[in-house]
Amino acid sequence: MSGTTHFRSHAWILSGLMNTPGILVLADGRLSFVADTGPVFDEPLDAVTDVRFPWYEFGGGFRATVAGQRRRIALVRPNGADTATAALFDTAVGEAFVASRAVHDIATGRTAGKSWRALLTGGAA
User: Fold this and answer.
1) Where are the domains of the chain?
2) Which fold has domain 6-121?
3) Which partner for 33 in 8, 40, 93, 103 could form a disulfide, CB atoms 3.0-4.6 Å apart?
4) Mean pLDDT per 10-residue interval, the chain, length 125 residues
């Protein structure tokens, strides 16, 4: 993957009953997740392995091992979950990125999922 690829979208790290809202960012060969409270991870792409888009997520989420820790990432807002603040989307990861500012409904999340699948696995978007 080119080091100049930039993409970001709203996302949620799922962990039991808790969901961490934030922004999932691909920039300069690194995958990052930034929450309102700060960065959760920021790793080079070679530290992101075993990326899977399970059929039961309908393209709206994926699983990946990031720096040795298994993560469940939702691209569609889970029921009752908060979203990252608009200020985080605008400033925490810079202005060089292009993505929708809309809170992810199912269609928007699935569209983001197609992009993430192509970016993380080289699969067709």
Assistant:
1) 6-121
2) PH-domain like (2.30.29)
3) 40
4) 70 87 92 91 94 86 94 87 67 45 62 85 66
